[in-house]
Amino acid sequence: MKPLPLRPSTNYLLDCLPCQDRASFLTHCEAVNLVFGEVISEPDGQIQHVYFPLNSFVSLIAQLSGRERLEVTMVGSEGMLGMPLILGLDESPLRALVQGAGPALRMPAADFGQHLAQSPALQALLKRYLYVLMHQLSQVAACTHFHHVEARLARWLLMTQDRAHSDHLHLTHAFLATMLGVRRAGITLAAMALQARGLIRYHRGDITVLDRTRLIEAACGCYAADCRLYRRVITEGGAV
């Protein structure tokens, strides 16, 4: 097990814990490196570990009985993977697929359960984060149904940029189409429109965000709503 800093500033969820709770929690974490394309969990699979991404991020994907797949949320340095454990369940409802390689903190599910039972502050924080995730899931359902592909793509690029901590992303049209649940031709047209407006540069799967401020304006309101909710409920600790 690698030694860890007492305050890993790159996982904002853990940063919100009181110092004593955070220090105790980190003594049972190990540093791991998440690999692009790695599957952390499958639907109905048993949760063996919880993960707190640092400079990595993971897509949570709903998969129907056929080949249809849709990303329903994304977890990076703002959150954690393994939330069913706080409800007393050890079964994953979604596929967790690493989309951004990099470091993360990991803890065995059994140790996590002990910390959860012993730390009221951890319980309170993760209940707030669960509320944020519930909001994101409902927002994605409405966004997918009502909002145009171009606005949804802009939102997804912003979410990815936030978690990748970089303006440079590697995302193919085929991958984006799967994540957004649309045809590849729709992604091509949306990406061309954003590029024509000078918001991004796209070439053979490499995307560079050129103008973040205008990309936020081009995105549907769901992105700003998600940011406001996280800030109010997690960072500021306001009432839900």
Automatic annotation (TrEMBL):
<feature type="domain" description="HTH crp-type">
    <location>
        <begin position="147"/>
        <end position="213"/>
    </location>
</feature>
<keyword id="KW-0805">Transcription regulation</keyword>
<dbReference type="InterPro" id="IPR018490">
    <property type="entry name" value="cNMP-bd_dom_sf"/>
</dbReference>
<dbReference type="InterPro" id="IPR012318">
    <property type="entry name" value="HTH_CRP"/>
</dbReference>
<keyword id="KW-0238">DNA-binding</keyword>
<dbReference type="InterPro" id="IPR036390">
    <property type="entry name" value="WH_DNA-bd_sf"/>
</dbReference>
<dbReference type="InterPro" id="IPR050397">
    <property type="entry name" value="Env_Response_Regulators"/>
</dbReference>
<dbReference type="InterPro" id="IPR014710">
    <property type="entry name" value="RmlC-like_jellyroll"/>
</dbReference>
<dbReference type="Pfam" id="PF13545">
    <property type="entry name" value="HTH_Crp_2"/>
</dbReference>
<keyword id="KW-0804">Transcription</keyword>
<protein>
    <submittedName>
        <fullName>Crp/Fnr family transcriptional regulator</fullName>
    </submittedName>
</protein>
